[in-house]
Amino acid sequence: MSADVDLDEEKYEKHREAGEIVIEVRAEAVDRIEVGASHLELAEWVERRIRELGGKPAFPMNISIDEEAAHATPGVDDDETFGEEMINVDIGVHVDGWIADTAITVDLSGQDELVEASAEALDAAIEMIEPGINTGVLGDVIGRTIEGYGYNPVVNLTGHGLGHWEQHTTPNIPNRKVSQGVELAVGDVVAIEPFATDGGGKVKEGSDEEIFALESEGSVRDRNARQVLDQVTEEYRTLPFATRWLDADRTGMALRRLKREDIVHGYSVLKEEEGCYVSQKEHTVIVTEDGCEVTTR
Ligand code: MN
Ligand code: MN
Fold first, then answer.
1. Sheet of 241-242: strands edge to edge?
2. 219 alpha carbon to ligand 1 midpoint, in Å?
3. Which sequence positions are flagged as catalytic?
4. What end-to-end distance do the CA atoms of the chain give, in Å?
5. pLDDT (tens digit, 9 = 90+) per residue, 248-263?
6. What is the number of the ligand closest to the CA of 22?
7. Residue 130: which domain range?
8. How far apart are the CA of 101 and the centre of ligand 2, in A?
9. Residues 57 and 108 in one domain
10. In terms of CB atoms within 10 Å, which end of the chain has fewer, N or C?
Protein backbone atom coordinates (compact mmCIF):
# COMPACT_ATOMS: atom_id res chain seq x y z
CA MET A 1 0.00 0.00 0.00
CA SER A 2 1.21 3.51 -0.72
CA ALA A 3 1.93 6.12 1.91
CA ASP A 4 -1.23 8.09 1.10
CA VAL A 5 -3.51 5.47 2.63
CA ASP A 6 -6.39 7.09 4.49
CA LEU A 7 -6.43 5.57 7.96
CA ASP A 8 -9.76 7.25 8.69
CA GLU A 9 -11.37 5.18 5.98
CA GLU A 10 -14.44 3.23 7.05
CA LYS A 11 -12.73 -0.15 7.07
CA TYR A 12 -10.16 1.03 9.60
CA GLU A 13 -12.95 2.47 11.73
CA LYS A 14 -14.55 -0.97 11.73
CA HIS A 15 -11.24 -2.61 12.70
CA ARG A 16 -11.09 -0.13 15.60
CA GLU A 17 -14.69 -0.79 16.60
CA ALA A 18 -14.01 -4.55 16.60
CA GLY A 19 -10.94 -3.84 18.74
CA GLU A 20 -12.90 -1.88 21.32
CA ILE A 21 -15.41 -4.69 21.64
CA VAL A 22 -12.77 -7.36 22.03
CA ILE A 23 -10.86 -5.37 24.66
CA GLU A 24 -13.96 -5.31 26.85
CA VAL A 25 -14.89 -8.94 26.25
CA ARG A 26 -11.33 -10.17 26.83
CA ALA A 27 -11.16 -8.43 30.23
CA GLU A 28 -14.50 -9.88 31.25
CA ALA A 29 -13.48 -13.35 30.04
CA VAL A 30 -10.25 -13.25 32.04
CA ASP A 31 -12.27 -12.36 35.16
CA ARG A 32 -14.45 -15.44 34.66
CA ILE A 33 -11.58 -17.93 34.49
CA GLU A 34 -11.07 -19.74 37.76
CA VAL A 35 -10.65 -23.32 38.90
CA GLY A 36 -13.95 -25.13 38.38
CA ALA A 37 -15.42 -22.74 35.78
CA SER A 38 -16.81 -24.39 32.65
CA HIS A 39 -15.08 -24.05 29.27
CA LEU A 40 -18.35 -24.26 27.37
CA GLU A 41 -20.13 -21.67 29.52
CA LEU A 42 -17.21 -19.29 29.10
CA ALA A 43 -17.07 -19.67 25.31
CA GLU A 44 -20.82 -19.25 24.95
CA TRP A 45 -20.82 -16.28 27.28
CA VAL A 46 -17.98 -14.60 25.34
CA GLU A 47 -19.61 -15.15 21.97
CA ARG A 48 -22.97 -13.84 23.26
CA ARG A 49 -21.32 -10.81 24.84
CA ILE A 50 -19.57 -9.94 21.56
CA ARG A 51 -22.98 -9.81 19.87
CA GLU A 52 -24.48 -7.74 22.71
CA LEU A 53 -21.74 -5.16 22.17
CA GLY A 54 -22.51 -4.92 18.46
CA GLY A 55 -19.87 -7.21 16.94
CA LYS A 56 -19.81 -10.80 15.80
CA PRO A 57 -17.33 -13.53 16.69
CA ALA A 58 -14.67 -13.69 13.95
CA PHE A 59 -13.96 -17.28 15.00
CA PRO A 60 -14.95 -19.58 17.88
CA MET A 61 -13.30 -18.61 21.16
CA ASN A 62 -10.17 -20.77 21.45
CA ILE A 63 -9.51 -22.19 24.90
CA SER A 64 -6.16 -23.99 24.86
CA ILE A 65 -4.91 -25.79 27.94
CA ASP A 66 -1.28 -26.53 28.93
CA GLU A 67 0.41 -28.16 25.90
CA GLU A 68 -2.35 -27.01 23.53
CA ALA A 69 -1.44 -23.95 21.49
CA ALA A 70 -4.40 -23.28 19.20
CA HIS A 71 -7.64 -24.39 17.58
CA ALA A 72 -9.24 -25.90 20.67
CA THR A 73 -12.81 -24.82 21.37
CA PRO A 74 -15.53 -26.55 23.39
CA GLY A 75 -17.78 -29.01 21.59
CA VAL A 76 -21.56 -29.10 21.97
CA ASP A 77 -21.52 -31.34 25.05
CA ASP A 78 -18.19 -30.26 26.47
CA ASP A 79 -18.10 -30.73 30.25
CA GLU A 80 -14.52 -29.63 30.93
CA THR A 81 -13.72 -27.20 33.71
CA PHE A 82 -10.58 -25.20 34.43
CA GLY A 83 -7.97 -26.63 36.77
CA GLU A 84 -4.60 -25.32 37.94
CA GLU A 85 -3.50 -25.04 34.33
CA MET A 86 -2.03 -22.69 31.77
CA ILE A 87 -4.99 -21.36 29.80
CA ASN A 88 -4.69 -19.47 26.51
CA VAL A 89 -7.79 -17.67 25.36
CA ASP A 90 -7.92 -16.37 21.82
CA ILE A 91 -10.84 -14.13 20.87
CA GLY A 92 -11.79 -12.58 17.55
CA VAL A 93 -14.43 -9.97 16.77
CA HIS A 94 -15.50 -8.67 13.42
CA VAL A 95 -17.59 -5.70 12.38
CA ASP A 96 -18.86 -6.21 8.83
CA GLY A 97 -15.98 -8.61 8.18
CA TRP A 98 -13.22 -6.32 9.56
CA ILE A 99 -11.43 -8.21 12.31
CA ALA A 100 -9.73 -7.71 15.68
CA ASP A 101 -7.78 -10.77 16.83
CA THR A 102 -6.31 -11.02 20.33
CA ALA A 103 -5.08 -13.64 22.77
CA ILE A 104 -3.85 -13.78 26.34
CA THR A 105 -2.64 -16.44 28.75
CA VAL A 106 -4.41 -16.82 32.07
CA ASP A 107 -2.06 -18.88 34.16
CA LEU A 108 -3.39 -20.86 37.10
CA SER A 109 -0.32 -23.13 37.10
CA GLY A 110 2.20 -20.74 38.65
CA GLN A 111 4.56 -20.18 35.71
CA ASP A 112 4.91 -16.42 35.55
CA GLU A 113 8.11 -16.44 33.49
CA LEU A 114 6.62 -18.45 30.65
CA VAL A 115 3.67 -16.04 30.50
CA GLU A 116 6.03 -13.05 30.57
CA ALA A 117 8.15 -14.49 27.74
CA SER A 118 5.38 -14.30 25.12
CA ALA A 119 4.04 -11.01 26.49
CA GLU A 120 7.43 -9.32 26.36
CA ALA A 121 8.12 -10.71 22.89
CA LEU A 122 4.85 -9.16 21.70
CA ASP A 123 5.70 -5.78 23.25
CA ALA A 124 9.18 -5.85 21.71
CA ALA A 125 7.77 -6.58 18.24
CA ILE A 126 5.06 -3.90 18.48
CA GLU A 127 7.71 -1.41 19.58
CA MET A 128 9.59 -2.00 16.31
CA ILE A 129 6.69 -1.82 13.88
CA GLU A 130 6.81 1.01 11.36
CA PRO A 131 6.49 1.24 7.59
CA GLY A 132 9.35 -0.64 5.94
CA ILE A 133 10.04 -2.99 8.86
CA ASN A 134 10.79 -6.49 7.62
CA THR A 135 8.70 -9.31 9.09
CA GLY A 136 11.89 -11.36 9.44
CA VAL A 137 13.26 -8.70 11.79
CA LEU A 138 10.07 -8.88 13.87
CA GLY A 139 10.41 -12.66 14.00
CA ASP A 140 14.00 -12.30 15.13
CA VAL A 141 13.14 -10.01 18.05
CA ILE A 142 10.25 -12.28 19.06
CA GLY A 143 12.42 -15.40 18.98
CA ARG A 144 15.34 -13.81 20.82
CA THR A 145 13.12 -12.31 23.51
CA ILE A 146 11.57 -15.70 24.26
CA GLU A 147 14.94 -17.44 24.19
CA GLY A 148 16.20 -14.81 26.63
CA TYR A 149 13.81 -16.32 29.15
CA GLY A 150 15.22 -19.79 28.48
CA TYR A 151 12.16 -20.91 26.49
CA ASN A 152 11.51 -21.70 22.84
CA PRO A 153 9.26 -19.79 20.46
CA VAL A 154 6.74 -22.01 18.66
CA VAL A 155 8.19 -21.64 15.18
CA ASN A 156 5.46 -23.30 13.15
CA LEU A 157 2.78 -20.87 14.31
CA THR A 158 2.85 -17.31 13.03
CA GLY A 159 1.06 -14.01 13.12
CA HIS A 160 -0.74 -13.00 9.96
CA GLY A 161 -2.48 -10.34 7.97
CA LEU A 162 -6.21 -9.79 8.49
CA GLY A 163 -8.36 -9.37 5.40
CA HIS A 164 -12.01 -8.65 4.79
CA TRP A 165 -13.81 -11.80 6.03
CA GLU A 166 -10.36 -13.40 6.04
CA GLN A 167 -8.83 -14.47 9.32
CA HIS A 168 -5.43 -15.42 7.89
CA THR A 169 -3.88 -13.58 4.96
CA THR A 170 -0.37 -12.56 3.99
CA PRO A 171 2.00 -11.50 5.33
CA ASN A 172 3.00 -14.11 7.90
CA ILE A 173 4.67 -12.67 10.97
CA PRO A 174 7.12 -15.37 12.02
CA ASN A 175 8.10 -16.15 15.60
CA ARG A 176 11.78 -16.57 14.71
CA LYS A 177 14.31 -14.99 12.37
CA VAL A 178 13.62 -15.74 8.70
CA SER A 179 15.57 -14.46 5.72
CA GLN A 180 12.63 -14.14 3.34
CA GLY A 181 10.46 -11.66 5.20
CA VAL A 182 8.42 -8.90 3.62
CA GLU A 183 8.20 -5.21 4.45
CA LEU A 184 5.13 -3.84 6.20
CA ALA A 185 3.47 -0.75 4.76
CA VAL A 186 1.16 1.98 6.02
CA GLY A 187 -2.38 0.62 6.27
CA ASP A 188 -1.41 -3.03 6.71
CA VAL A 189 -3.50 -4.73 9.40
CA VAL A 190 -1.64 -7.60 11.05
CA ALA A 191 -1.96 -9.83 14.09
CA ILE A 192 1.28 -10.46 15.97
CA GLU A 193 1.17 -13.59 18.13
CA PRO A 194 4.23 -14.97 19.85
CA PHE A 195 3.93 -18.38 21.50
CA ALA A 196 6.49 -19.44 24.12
CA THR A 197 6.99 -22.99 25.34
CA ASP A 198 9.14 -25.17 27.55
CA GLY A 199 8.77 -27.81 24.83
CA GLY A 200 10.66 -28.16 21.56
CA GLY A 201 8.94 -25.26 19.79
CA LYS A 202 7.02 -27.15 17.13
CA VAL A 203 3.34 -27.98 17.51
CA LYS A 204 1.75 -31.04 15.97
CA GLU A 205 -1.81 -31.73 14.91
CA GLY A 206 -3.89 -33.59 17.46
CA SER A 207 -6.96 -35.62 16.57
CA ASP A 208 -9.63 -33.29 17.96
CA GLU A 209 -11.37 -30.98 15.51
CA GLU A 210 -14.10 -28.57 16.56
CA ILE A 211 -13.36 -25.61 14.29
CA PHE A 212 -14.04 -25.60 10.56
CA ALA A 213 -14.17 -23.14 7.67
CA LEU A 214 -15.53 -23.00 4.18
CA GLU A 215 -12.86 -23.98 1.70
CA SER A 216 -14.55 -23.76 -1.70
CA GLU A 217 -17.96 -23.56 -3.25
CA GLY A 218 -19.83 -26.73 -3.89
CA SER A 219 -23.15 -28.45 -3.51
CA VAL A 220 -24.30 -31.51 -1.61
CA ARG A 221 -27.47 -33.53 -1.79
CA ASP A 222 -27.66 -34.62 1.85
CA ARG A 223 -30.23 -32.45 3.64
CA ASN A 224 -28.27 -31.84 6.86
CA ALA A 225 -25.06 -31.13 4.97
CA ARG A 226 -26.92 -28.67 2.77
CA GLN A 227 -28.41 -26.96 5.83
CA VAL A 228 -24.93 -26.60 7.34
CA LEU A 229 -23.56 -25.24 4.08
CA ASP A 230 -26.39 -22.71 3.76
CA GLN A 231 -25.93 -21.48 7.32
CA VAL A 232 -22.15 -21.17 6.98
CA THR A 233 -22.34 -19.40 3.62
CA GLU A 234 -24.89 -16.96 5.00
CA GLU A 235 -23.53 -16.27 8.50
CA TYR A 236 -19.83 -17.09 8.65
CA ARG A 237 -18.75 -16.96 5.00
CA THR A 238 -15.02 -17.74 4.92
CA LEU A 239 -14.49 -17.21 8.66
CA PRO A 240 -13.94 -20.19 10.99
CA PHE A 241 -16.97 -21.61 12.82
CA ALA A 242 -17.59 -24.15 15.58
CA THR A 243 -19.68 -27.28 15.43
CA ARG A 244 -21.74 -25.86 18.29
CA TRP A 245 -22.71 -22.85 16.15
CA LEU A 246 -24.60 -25.02 13.68
CA ASP A 247 -28.37 -25.44 13.77
CA ALA A 248 -28.64 -28.62 11.68
CA ASP A 249 -29.21 -32.10 13.11
CA ARG A 250 -26.38 -34.62 13.01
CA THR A 251 -23.76 -31.98 12.30
CA GLY A 252 -20.92 -34.47 12.73
CA MET A 253 -22.01 -36.49 9.73
CA ALA A 254 -22.83 -33.36 7.74
CA LEU A 255 -19.35 -31.95 8.35
CA ARG A 256 -17.71 -35.24 7.39
CA ARG A 257 -19.56 -35.15 4.08
CA LEU A 258 -18.59 -31.53 3.45
CA LYS A 259 -14.97 -32.32 4.25
CA ARG A 260 -14.97 -35.31 1.92
CA GLU A 261 -16.14 -33.01 -0.89
CA ASP A 262 -13.40 -30.48 0.03
CA ILE A 263 -16.08 -27.84 0.61
CA VAL A 264 -15.12 -27.41 4.25
CA HIS A 265 -11.83 -27.99 6.04
CA GLY A 266 -11.20 -28.65 9.72
CA TYR A 267 -8.62 -27.18 12.07
CA SER A 268 -7.01 -29.85 14.25
CA VAL A 269 -6.02 -28.84 17.74
CA LEU A 270 -2.32 -27.88 17.64
CA LYS A 271 -0.22 -28.99 20.56
CA GLU A 272 3.24 -29.38 21.99
CA GLU A 273 4.36 -32.66 23.58
CA GLU A 274 2.27 -33.81 26.53
CA GLY A 275 3.61 -32.42 29.80
CA CYS A 276 4.78 -29.18 28.19
CA TYR A 277 3.23 -25.74 28.46
CA VAL A 278 2.55 -23.03 25.90
CA SER A 279 1.85 -19.34 26.58
CA GLN A 280 0.52 -16.94 23.97
CA LYS A 281 -0.14 -13.25 23.60
CA GLU A 282 -1.61 -11.56 20.56
CA HIS A 283 -2.60 -8.08 19.43
CA THR A 284 -3.89 -6.67 16.16
CA VAL A 285 -2.15 -3.57 14.81
CA ILE A 286 -2.63 -1.09 11.99
CA VAL A 287 0.66 0.14 10.53
CA THR A 288 0.73 3.96 10.59
CA GLU A 289 3.09 6.62 9.17
CA ASP A 290 5.22 6.69 12.29
CA GLY A 291 4.66 3.33 13.94
CA CYS A 292 1.50 1.40 14.57
CA GLU A 293 -1.86 1.62 16.26
CA VAL A 294 -2.76 -1.36 18.44
CA THR A 295 -6.50 -1.90 18.04
CA THR A 296 -6.78 -4.51 20.80
CA ARG A 297 -4.97 -2.74 23.66
MN1 MN B 1 -5.95 -15.16 17.61
MN1 MN C 1 -4.27 -14.68 15.04
1. 68-70, 264-271, 204-214, 241-242
2. 30
3. 90, 101, 160, 168, 193, 282
4. 24
5. 999 999 999 999 999 9
6. 1
7. 3-203+276-294
8. 6
9. yes
10. N
